[in-house]
Amino acid sequence: MMNRLIECVPNFSEGRDMNLIKQITDEIESVEKVKLLDVDPGKATNRTVVTFVGPPDEVVEAAFRAVKMAARLINMKIHKGEHPRFGATDVCPLVPVAGISMEETVEYARKLAQRIGDELQYPVYCYESAAFSAQRKNLAAVRSGEYEGLQEKLSDPDWKPDFGPAKFSPATGATAVGARDFLVAYNINLNTTSARRANAIAFDVRERGRAKRKGDPLTGEIIRDEQGNPVMIPGSLKEVKAIGWYIEEYGIAQISMNLTNISVTPVHVAFDEVFERAEARGVRVSGSELVGLIPLKAILEAGRHFLRKQKRSVGVSDKELIKIAVKSMGLDDLYPFKPEEKIIEYMIADSGAASLAGMSVREFMEETASESPAPGGGSISACMGSLGTALGTMVANLSSHKRGWDDRWEEFSDWAERGKAIQEELLALVDEDTLAFNMIMEAFAMPKNTADELRQRKAAIEEATRKAILVPYRIMKTAAAALEILKAMAETGNPDSVSDAGVGALAIRSAVMGAFLNVKINAGNLEDKSFTEKILKEGRELEVSVCRKEAEILKIVEARL
Fold it and tell me: Given this model, what pLDDT does residue 190 score?
């Protein structure tokens, strides 16, 4: 199960006073679960770009606190800088990173914008995907006139703020809150020192393309439209900005790219396109580099893309997918690629947090055998289910690479990918079951001295018990889904591994039955009997179905041994 993460990249109109900037970033870091990733002040622009990430609600809270502090500390009446701006917090975009859609991110952006307008009482505009109208989608249009023209702009009914008063606030100005896609800064290395050739390739691929010319495409006179603007020949990649340059430090030319929407043009698509365009110009791509961070999903997609090109199964571990992506795009060409420093989810992971799923087999066994009541049967059931599914995934991967079965690689790759998804969910449930148990212990430890405390304690126990029922029930349902994979592998997979499919089915049956025991023991403590009756009825039916399917798979396995 993927954690929901969004990134926030506010730009504050102060880039010189580090004490002031720290007061703003301290507000961000005061919110639990939010991680400050980068603070980039600029003296000439008198502007600081801050990057932080976390769960949606916490990020919105951290953003509001930072905006509030900026409004208190920054005086726009005396602000000077080279970068366009119209407010103390000039822009504040939210970016979906993992487990959340753009539509959901838009809702969070508008929620933040409304809170700023309502509580801080100054104008707020929504832009990019959060815009309420096409006129306000483009940030340049929203910010036109800048701070100096803001008072006049606010008097125009067409530019009434989306939130907050249509009243000029001299000290704070206005803020633009948006929702946009994740921007990836990505450079592709070339085996040439020619910035001109690199630039030519950049013009081939960037969305804006190059100016159309008369005669010679490089030196001919630029063709212009009736307004005097150059007529452009579009490049091949949408949502991409690019330029070619020479990097003295490495002695090579690069294509420097901003991928402004990686759902439209992912990194691997950009790499392949530049590779082809460079080759057509007699230049070879020697590698690439990521500047800043990239979401895990994007690097895994790249790994799967290059495995598919090799006609190999994509149902392999994240570690293997990352390795394939790094090697295929030469991300370690200039310096080692460190996933923990380049992949956003790894960057923010709490290395100190205890995780059962992250333990070695021995550590997990010894932790289970200790005097502590958790991990218990639910976590063990989830672990069994994950291992049973992994056996089915293994058979699928072996089958996809079996000599003579080359035309079936995609069939088995699909099974392996489905297996991997189930494995990952069950592995997450190993820890979630223990967390559910801990919630019950915490609820029982709540004070009960007054009638109010007794009511709160009772409600907390009921809620924690419900969770302690639902988590093992999810283990049952998730593990049961793996039997379809195991049956297919028993019937059509590599015959040398048919016994592994059988062991996998045994493990899944045990996982389902074990998890159901946990459902039943917790169901007796829940006061909502209609809920428990429904869950127990569904659980019994699922258990019977799983035992029947396991018997069918074992029969197939025995026949093929």
Answer: 97
Residue 332 appears among annotated catalytic residues: no
- What are the structure tokens assigned to 496, written together? 């040398």
Structural contact between residues 37 and 139, judged by C-beta atoms closer than 8 angstroms: no
Q: Which DSSP state fits 175?
A: E
Q: Are 425 and 370 in contact (CB under 8 A)?
A: no
Position 1 confidence tier, pLDDT thresholds 50, 70, 90: very low
Distance CA 77, CA 172 (A): 8
Does the structural domain 361-560 have CATH classification 3.40.50.2300? no
Active site annotation includes 79: no
What span, in angstroms and rounded, lies between the C-alpha atoms of 50 and 98? 19
Identify the active-site residue in 162, 204, 431, 433: 433
Dihedrals φ, ψ of 240, to 5°?
A: -130, 130
Higher pLDDT, residue 224 or 69: 69
Find out if CATH 3.30.1240.10 is the number for domain 184-347: no
C-alpha closest to that of 10 among 26, 28, 23: 28
Asked whether the beta carbons of 188 and 277 are under 8 A apart, the reply is no
Angle between helices 267-280 and 296-309 (to 10 degrees): 50
Domain boundaries, the chain: 5-179, 184-347, 361-560
> Which residues, in sequence order, are CB contacts of 557 under 8 Å at separation 6+?
490, 498, 499, 501, 502, 505
Tokens 């019994």 identify what position? 540
Q: Is the CA virtual torsion 440, 444, 447, 453 positive or negative?
A: positive
Cβ contact 466:531 at 8 Å = yes
**C-beta of residue 514 within 8 angstroms of C-beta of residue 384:** yes
Find the catalytic residue in 17, 57, 83, 272.
83
Q: pTM higher than 0.90 for the full model?
A: no
